Structure formats: structure tokens, C-alpha cells
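Interim report, section 4.2 (structural modelling).
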Amino acid sequence: MPPRVRRRVQELKEYCELAEVGEIARRYFAMNAFDGVLTMIGVLMGNYLAQVRQPAIVISTGLSTCIAMGVSGLWGAYLTESAERKRDLDELQDRVLVDLSQTKIGRASRTAVVIVALIDALAPFISALAVLLPFFFVAFLTDIAVSYYLSLGIALAALFGLGAFLGKVCRGNVGVFGLKMITAGIVSMLLSYLLRTA
Amino acid sequence: MGRVRRLVLDVLKPYEPTIVVWAQLLSELEGVEAVNISIYEIDRRVENAKITIQGSGISFELVEDLIQENGGAVHSIDEVVAGKIIIDDAATPQDPYQG
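Predicted structure of the assembly:
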């Protein structure tokens, strides 16, 4: 790695540590990836129950949803986080009676806002996109129904993965956390299914 | 001008970066050979630190810049030793009794 890049990476690591990005980023990642998967389950179940059989429609509605979630995450987290961080920095400035905006602490605070906003945007976007993937390969599958089943399968697997991630974070039972997450997906599917019978 | 060999500062700093990081950063400055930092008061989100720096030629400007860069503020310069050797302050009858 070139020395300049290594220095930048080191600086970034230092800022993340200083602004305590790790914990909040983990929380945002898990929460928003979960939202992304569940929202996509809703979109897919809606399409499936409305008997949509054209992959182009599923893809366009799915992609629009992914983009909307990404933009929502980016904007929401950026504004919320910058407001919170500004308040935090102001409070600290009042304590030390020094302008901290051009110090390491100020730069770490601004970097944290960008990192958290990006995670908040990318987590739902990527997780939802992963669920939608089988619809891009409908041509290779026998029937679009297979895409629906595959997508819902991916969604449940992603939920289990997220649960396992959280289980690992709290050093708990990875399997139990995974199953708790999957339950949310199954409940969501069942409630959507009930709409058809209602 | 003579070389500054010891500097004792009273500094107000945020909890983060910790004094471990501060000591490491200060010890990397040119002309610094050893650093001692002790916390003598803790307040909400900030702490007061007594920083003792010893070396062969300490630059106060560099030290102050580093302190400011890390969010601290120098409250006072409590002791400076400059010259060829390090000497402590001489005892006088007016000093408070420390028996």
C-alpha cells in the first residue's frame, strides 16, 4: 500500500475510533439491512399475490424501492447524525472553551457523519437488491414463480445472517438470534398472504 | 536561546483521545525524550491533566499545536527548565512547610 494511502487509512481509523463510529455503524447497518430485506419481502409478496408474472415489473418496482430506501437512509442519517454530532461538539466546546471545528475531534465528527450516512444508505439498498437478484435471471429459470421462491429464500437467509451477526456482536447464541430474525420475515410473509384471503 | 529541557503544563482536555494516546503523540515530537501525564480532576466530558515533558530541546509551539489539534487547551505553564542541565527550584525559607 502506498504511504499516502496508508496514512489516510490510518487517519480514517483514528477518526472512527475517536468519533465512536463502530457501535453506531453496526446498529445502523443491522437495523437498515433488516428494513431493506423486510421491505423487499413486502414488495415481492405484493407482486406475487397480485399475480404479477412479468419480471420487468417486479424489477422496476423492486429497484425503485431499493433506491428510495437508499436515498432515505442517506438523507435521514446525514441530517440526523450531523444535528446530533453538532450538538455534541458544541457541548464539548462549551466545556473546553476552544473552537474544536478545525481539530482532530471536529474532523472526526464530520467524517463520522459521512460514514454513518453511507452505511445507512448502502445497508438497505444492498440487502434489498440481493433479495431481488433472482428476477435478473428469470431467463435461466423455468418459471417466474421460481424467482419468487428463490428471492424469498434469499430474504430468509439474509435475515438469518443478520441475526447471526447480531448474535456474534453480543456474544450470544448465533442460531437463536438468526431464528428470531427469520421469524420476522415469516410473520411478514404470512400477514401479506392473509391479505389475499381477506 | 537556551534549549527547553522540561515543561510542566496544566491542560484541560476532552476524555477522548485518552491520555495514553496523548502521551504517545507528545513523545513522538522532536526533542522530546519522555512524557508523563496525570489526571488530577475529572469533570463532565473533560478532565484536567498535568503534563510533564522532558527532553533535549522541546518546542513549546509544537507541543501547544498538538494539544490544540487534539481538542485541549493549555490553562497554564506551571514549570519550565531550560539550559544545559535540568535543575529543580531552589528551596527558600518562604516555601510552605512540607514536613
